[in-house]
Design goal:
The protein is α+β, with helices and mostly antiparallel strands and 265 residues long. The chain is 28% helix and 34% strand.
């Protein structure tokens, strides 16, 4: 789908660096799970960029630099890192269940080579007094329904989402059904109950490797996706239907039907 011309005139909104982390964060935004983010005040200073202000709109971009949504900033706070609270952590939608867990993950990112290079400081470290910029935002436009459906599908393959009934439940339509690779028929409640114990739900275990994901807009509110997955030597062809939700559920698109067909190697 062609993006509206006005997206090109908006400032790009970039989460993390291009790659798997950005892809996960963009998917969390497009599915309504991520409504806040945080950055280092030092990043703005190093790039000579002004701080965001409420009401400012920008184009969320993926790892390929393509605009996938229009965001509007609703709140900006500059505070010491040690003052970040659990509400902000949960609203970042990355699956962290405590401030300590969130802090450890962000310190790994901020102390990484890419961030230190961007800041021009090979020894950069953070502590409780480090100034950070906490933002809240909302999605005001999703110009590409297929991209939104793809984001939802990828998020359902994320281990942090698969083992969280709340996060997975946001993405499953109330009428969701699935025909699994084993031939079993699943209802929404059955799937949510067993998903944490199914493959791909642990950080240290095997993860689903999707490929060839393509989508077709069947109707203004309905997208059909097809793709392949591999996990632990198992190969499957998959098909999903994603439907736009009119409910204020926080997830603008939800999966209505899924089918997996095993393929012998």
């Amino acid at each position: 789908m062609t993006h509206p011309d006005h997206l090109a005139s908006l400032k790009p909104y970039e989460l993390a660096f291009p790659g798997p982390l950005r892809d996960r964060l963009v998917a969390a935004v497009l599915t309504g799970a991520k409504v806040s983010t945080i950055g280092l005040a030092a990043e703005y200073e190093a790039e000579g960029e002004p701080l965001p202000v409420p009401g400012e709109r920008s184009a969320l971009v993926d790892s390929a630099g393509r605009p996938v949504a229009v965001l509007e900033v609703t709140e900006v706070r500059v505070l010491p890192l040690g003052a970040v609270d659990l509400r902000h952590v949960l609203d970042e939608g990355e699956g962290h269940r405590s401030v300590a867990e969130w802090r450890a993950a962000h310190e790994r990112f901020w102390h990484g080579a890419a961030m230190r290079e961007a800041l021009g400081d090979p020894h950069f470290t953070v502590d409780d007094t480090t100034r950070v910029v906490a933002e809240r935002f909302r999605v005001v436009e999703l110009p590409d329904p297929v991209a939104a459906a793809v984001a939802g599908e990828l998020r359902l393959l994320d281990p942090a989402v698969r083992r969280s009934r709340a996060e997975a439940g946001r993405l499953l339509d109330p009428e969701f059904t699935e025909v699994g690779a084993s031939g079993r028929f699943w209802t929404r409640d059955e799937m949510l109950a067993e998903l944490p114990d199914k493959p791909g739900a642990t950080d240290g275990g095997p993860r689903y490797e999707p490929s060839g994901m393509t989508g077709t807009l069947l109707a203004p509110n309905l997208v059909h996706l097809t793709y392949e997955t591999r996990i632990a030597g198992r190969h499957a062809l998959r098909s999903s239907l994603w439907r736009r939700s009119d409910e204020d559920s926080g997830a603008p698109w939800r999966i209505d039907y899924h089918q997996a067909t095993p393929v012998p190697d």
